[in-house]
Each structure stands twice: as structure tokens, then as C-alpha cells.
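call fold(seq) -> C-alpha cells
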Amino acid sequence: MASRQSQDVKHRSHFTALLDACVLFPAGLRDTLIRLAATGLYRARWAEQIHDEWTRAVLRRRSDLTADSLQRTCHLMNQAVPDCLVEGYEPLIDSLTLPDADDRHVLAAAIAGKADVIVTLNLKHFPQTALAPFGIEAQHPDDFICHLLDLAPETVCESIRQQRAALKNPPKTVAELLDTLRNEGLPKTAAALNHFADDL
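ret:
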């Protein structure tokens, strides 16, 4: 999990992304997004309901993990990213329309959190026609991270380098880390980062 690197950032971006539970479920992708947020390249936001959603999904898949250990992960995430938790969005939920009603809390949190984008793997769940009235768009994490890489390649590469350096059990080579990102749905990001392999 990322440390509070934000203290070293002089100019934080006002560009705000609401992270859907599906992008917080894969450990590697979650770590990448949190570390990038901690650099100040963008402002990451989520809600306790989103925490509940991704941690329940992990517990269904990983019998070796406990609710307490994942609660600690959530706490570390909240510490790593300033002002990440969105509150008071619940009254908006019933007024919203999405293909899956269970996703309305995500859009409600994005609206209340003044998000520019919802970063999600489930783009079909957030059609632009439903998001446009609120000035929000849905973006796949592969596109989102590629945009950040285009904007600030040195910062993104340093964040990825620190992510790889933190992997001790087991450690990963650059190629192995890029394979992890690729397997977690980030083929374009992995290909783009491969051009910076010597810096990772």
C-alpha cells in the first residue's frame, strides 16, 4: 500500500476520479491506482459502501484472507489518499437511473464527490447518457492510467518503480509486474510502460 507521498507534492491536481469497487478488487490494480493518487496526479475518491463491496468480493474469492485484514487495507487506503471518503450521497441514489440499479450508489458518490470520471471496468453499467447530465464520464482504468502516463511519465514511472520495489513476497521483475497489470485488464498500460522498462 502506498505511503502518504502526498505530503511531498506541491501542486495537487483537482481532477477527481471516483474509483468503482471493481477496480479496487484486484490487488495490483488497486495498489497502482492508490499510489498514483498519492502522487497528486489526480484526486481519488470512494465511499464506505464501495469499500464494503470490493472487500466482500475479495472474501468470496480468498478464503486465506479475513475481514479484519481487509479492514486494515481500507484504513491504509483512507490514510494514503487525503479526503478520499465521500459522505452524504445516499439521498441522491433513488433519483438516479442506471442499467443496474445496484450501481446507483457509485454514481451518487461520484456526484456528491464532484468527480470528473468514474474509473470502472464495467463501462456498460455507466452509459454516457446517464452520466452526461452530471458532467461525469466513465473511463476504463487502462485508458485512465495511460492518460496519466501521457501527462506525467516521470511521476507515473517512479510510482510504478516504487510499487515494484515494495513487492517482497515474492519480488517481481519489471516483466512480471507488467504481466500482472496486463492480466488485471491493463494491456495498453503495460505496453506503454514497457517503453520505460529501464526506469521501472
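Strands lie at 16-19, 43-45, 117-119, 137-139.
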